[in-house]
Amino acid sequence: MDTQEAIKNWQNHMVEKNTPLFYLPSFDHFLSEYVPSDDSLRRHLTNFTGSVAEVLIPAQGKVKIYVDGRYHEQADDECDLNLIEVVKVPYGESLFEALLKDIGKDQNLGFFPERTPYQSLKKFSTQTQTIEFKEEDFHKLCGFKAPIFKGELFEPEYEQTGLTTKWQRVLADGEAAFINALDTLAWVSGLRAHHLPYQGTFRGLGLVTHEKVFVFVDDVLFSSAKKWTNPIRHIYPMSQMEEVLKELPKPKKLWWDPAYTNAANFKIISKVFPGLLQEISPGFHAKWQAPKTSAEIQAFRESFEKSDEAIYQGLCWLIENVRAGHEVSELSFRDKVNECYAKMGAKCQSFRTIAGFGSHGSIIHFGKPSAEKMYQTGELVLLDSGGIYEQGLATDCTRTIIPMGRATKKQKLEYTLVLKGLISILKASVPVGTPGKVLDEMARAPLKEHGLNYAHGTGHGVGAALNVHEGPQSISARFGNTQALLPDMVCSNEPGYYEDGSFGVRIENL
Predict the structure, then answer these.
(1) pLDDT (tens digit per residue) in 32-64
(2) Which of 78, 237, 432, 443 is the one with CA 20 to 30 A from 327?
(3) C-alpha–C-alpha distance, residues 169 and 192, integer Å
C-alpha cells in the first residue's frame, strides 16, 4: 500500500470516529527511542527513518511531521512533500510542545494508548478530549504487519553478583516499582538479548520489589527466558502480567515513571494497585541507571578497546583502497566497518552506522549510504559508529578524515574549530552538580567566534543498560537543560559543523 492510500484510509477512519486530529508518536509499546524499523507506525506512514519525530494527522489535508535540526534536511529528502508538511523545529525547542500548540483546544484528539506515554496523554487532556483508537485498525487500514521478535536471553558476567543492590539503594523495604522501559528492565533484571536491532534489550515489562524482580517477557520469548528464573528473578509471559500482579502482596507504595509508562499499562497498574501509585521524579534512568558501577565502567572500557580497533581497521581499509586507485562506495565502506566490528566480537551495531562522503556528511544522521556514491579525492568522510559486545553495553564514536588529497582552507578552519570545542570539554574541570548546558556553551564557543554553530546537542548520556542514548544527563542547551552532571555518569562529547550540500565535520568521544 502506498503512502497516499494509507494516509487517506486513516483520515477516512478518523472522520468516521468524529476525530479531527490524531497523534502518531515514534514509540513502540515500550516507548523506546530506537524502535525497530518494521515496528514503527510513524516510519510506515511517512517514510521518515530518523529516530525522533512527532506526527499530527488531520482528518483532511497534509500530515505534519515535527523534526529537530538533526533531521531537517533528511525529512525533506525522505517524505513526500505533497502529502506531508515537514515542521522544522529550531534547535533548543521541544518537538512535543510545537505539536501541542498546533493541536489547540477543544478538538477531539485520537491516540494509541499502547504507544503514547502517560505523561503526553496527561498534557493532551488539559486542552482537548482524547479518544482511544485501536492499533489493529491501523494495521488493517494502512497495510502494517506487526513484527515478531524471537531470541535468546543471556546474563553478562558483571551482572551475576549483587543484582538487588542496584535498586535497593533507592527502593525501600515495602516499596515496589513498575518498569515499562526496555533498557531499565534489562538493567534491573540483569538480562540481555541481541534480537532487537541496535539494542541489547528484550521485549518485556517488570515489577521490582525490595527483594525480587518479576519479569514479564514477550510471549514468544518465554520458553527460552524461563530458565533464568531464580530466587531473586521470576519470569512470566507478558500476557499473564495483570493476573500475576493481582496475586502479589500489595506494596506500601508503587513507584512509576510517567515519561516511560504507556497509557495502556498505566490503566492496568492503576486498577491493580489503586491508591498506591507514586510518580518517581526524576525517573528511574536518573536515580538508578545514570551513575555507573565500577564493573559497568570497566565493561565500557573493554568494549571501547574493541570498537577503537574496528574503527581503525575500517578507516585504514578506506585509505589504502582509495590511494591504490580503487573505486570505493559509501555502501561498501559502511559494510566494511560493520564487518570490522563483527570481527572484533560485536553482536550487533549500537545504532545504524553513519558513513557519509562529501556532501552526505552534512546530513547529521545520514542513514542511506549509496552504492553509487564513490569517494572523490579531497572529500571529507564522516564515520559515526558503535557496537554492542558480550557485555551488552553500547559504544559510540565519530571520526572525520580526508582519506586522500589536501584539505581546503575552509575545511581546515572548521575542523579545527570543532576540535577545539571537543578539547575544551576534555580539559574542563567539572564540579559535581554542573549542568550540562555549561559545557555545551564551552564546546560551541570556538565556532560562535566565527559566526558558526550546529543544530544538535554536544553530548548525550550513554547507558550501562544497553542503549546508546540514555537520560537524564546531556551536554545540551535543549529545553533549558539543568540536569546536574554527577560522578560516574557517561556522556558523549560530539561537537560538529555542517555545510549543507558540501561537507560535515563531527568528532566524538565518550
Answers:
(1) 888 999 999 999 999 999 989 999 999 999 999
(2) 78
(3) 22
Alpha-carbon distance of 100 to 105, in angstroms, equals: 9
SS3 466: coil
pLDDT at 466 (0 to 100)? 61
Q: For residues 109 and 263, what is the distance between their CA atoms, to the nearest angstrom? A: 15
Question: Which of 9, 127, 90 minimizes the C-alpha distance to 57?
Answer: 9
- What is the Cα–Cα distance from 85 to 99, expressed in whole angstroms? 13
| Euclidean distance between CA atoms 264 and 205, whole angstroms | 13
Cell numbers of 87, please?
Answer: 515542521
Give the percent of the chain with pLDDT over 70.
97
Q: Which three cell numbers stand for residue 453?
A: 554553530
Cβ neighbors of 377 (< 8 A, separation 6 or more) are: 322, 404, 405
CA-to-CA distance for 125 and 55, rounded, in angstroms?
Answer: 18
**Eight-class DSSP state of 370:** -
Helices (H), 262-293: 263-272, 284
Query: Per-residue pLDDT tens for 252-311?
Result: 999 999 999 999 999 999 999 999 999 998 788 877 888 888 888 898 999 999 999 999
What are the DSSP calls for 471-499, one per residue? -S-EE--GGG--PBP-TT--B-B--EEEE
Closest CA to 200 of 34, 355, 26: 34
CB 24 within 8 A of CB 57: yes
Q: Of how many residues is the chain composed?
A: 510
Question: Which stretch of DSSP H or E encloses residue 5?
Answer: helix 3-16
Residue 109 half-sphere exposure toward CB, CA atoms < 13 A: 27
Paired residues of 179 in beta bridges: 206
What's the Cα-to-Cα distance from 267 to each of 130, 175, 206, 277, 471, rounded to whole Å? 15, 20, 15, 11, 25
First to last CA, the chain: 42
- Burial (0-12, 13-18, 19+ Cβ within 10 Å), 487: exposed
Question: Do 292 and 159 form a contact (C-beta atoms < 8 A)?
Answer: no
